[in-house]
Amino acid sequence: MSDKKKILVIQKVHDKGMELFKNHPNFEVDVTDDVSVENLKSKIKDCDGASIRIANLPGEVIEEAKNLKIISRHGVGYDNIDLKKAKEKDIKIAITANANAVTVAEHVMFVLLHIAKRKNLFDKTVRDGNFKDRNKLPKTIEIWKKNFLIMGFGRIGKALIKRCLGFEMNVFVYDPFVEKEAIEALGGKKVEDLNQSITDMDVVSLHMPLNDKTKNLINYDLLKTMKKNCILINAARGGIIHERDLDKALNEDLIFGAAIDVFEKEPPENDNPLIKNEKVFLSPHTAAFTDECMIRMGMETIQNIIDYFDQKIDKSKIVKL
Prior knowledge:
Largest sheet: 7 strands, parallel
Shape: elongated
Strand order of the largest sheet: 8-7-6-9-10-11-12
Strand content: 15-25%
Distance between the termini: 34 Å
Helix content: 25-40%
CATH architecture of the largest domain: 3-Layer(aba) Sandwich
Order of helices and strands: EHEHEHEHEHHEHEHEHEHEHEEH
Number of domains: 2
Radius of gyration: 22 Å
């Protein structure tokens, strides 16, 4: 009987991540891109560990895993995993805590400038031969000295604040779990009351998990209190913003624009109003999709599994269930 640990890689990761297994002959690895419930139930039965990207891992799949000890998430969010069932079976969940912070922070600055400077419209004006119409184009806005609110101050938030300060923005942070001294040490100011402070913000960027408290946190009632020149960015989790409320707010010119990288349902359905709203910059959950970051995430995802069985995993990467 083999003593090898059986590992299921659900949705392939970067080759450099898979190469880490080569130096560990005590692992038997199976890779599947078929994320149907029936396939996963069959594949996971005898596995000791598993990695997963954005596919759902429901309780009925986890229930079939008789030997599963760890699920390594290719990213920092884990709302695609049935946490209740994982806790019930004492299965640890690890995240790639250090891999994507810089990349997502860069994405936020990219979409912010894209919207503020109306990149698509200006580019189209030249390509369409309408150079002389430049004085007729809608206004753009500066980000210098503007108020930037980071909602959620984990690793991504900490990477983002450095970039905001580089543009000489005034940075505020809303995170009930982070002390104001830690925020002030990095150049920000802690916000205690979200409803009161959000009215003064020029940019709002979301970097918090999706849970019962954050579901539809950004809704029409909150959106209508924001500045008309405010830009809203979500590179965290779909569902934190009520999508139809955002569409309504944009159509009523309540805010300047938005950038959405994540959706409540992925891929978004054809009737999702944001798809046709030209005031929204859309991306397909790819804020972390640089080549460098995909290498880091792939390697960290697999290394978490290896480290767990070698009993040397960084405890800060284990989710508290």
